Amino acid sequence: MAVMGKVGIVMAFITSFIHVTLAISGHATSYKGTVFPSSCNNTKVSQANNLVAAVSTSMFRDGYSCGIRYYVICVSAEPKIRYPCGDARESVIVTVVDVCQSCHGFDILLSKEAFSKIAAPNAEEIFIDYSRSSTN
């Protein structure tokens, strides 16, 4: 029993040094119209920077996702676009403010401002990886 206790302590110690970030892969497009008003009426979002997103109904979960922030990075796009992620491969942190009825699975809809930060001007849809931001 003492050996099992020591093994457990050693495993806890080792895993405390391992940091794993689980990224979700999906597609992103840009809002075609205005973002506000949205389905998350009570979400405190600065409309000044407008770095917001809408998620699929399965991710939205009746508003539970309102206010959640995601760290999003462009991975690639259709082969016809040479540099879909722009030159700098920047990332953006967005806040969920709406539900996207046309999104499926882990696809998200980004505001024009957020999309333009990570995608080339000629990109219409990009492949992304995103994870929950630690700044929630």
* Major pleated sheet: 6 strands, mixed, barrel
The structural domain count equals: 1
Backbone structural class: alpha/beta
Helical segment tally?
Answer: 3
Query: Secondary-structure element sequence?
Result: HEEHEEEHE
Task: Classify the fold: give the CATH topology.
Answer: Barwin-like endoglucanases
Amount of beta strand:
25-35%
Strand order of the largest sheet: 1-5-2-4-3-6
What's the helical proportion of residues? 10-25%
Kindly report the name of the CATH homologous superfamily. Answer: RlpA-like domain
Q: Output mean pLDDT.
A: 77
Q: How would the global form be characterised?
A: globular
Q: Give the termini separation.
A: 41 Å
In angstroms, what is the radius of gyration?
Answer: 18 Å
CATH architecture: Beta Barrel
Contiguous low-pLDDT stretches (5 residues minimum) are 7-20
Count of DSSP strands: 6
For the record, the CATH class is Mainly Beta
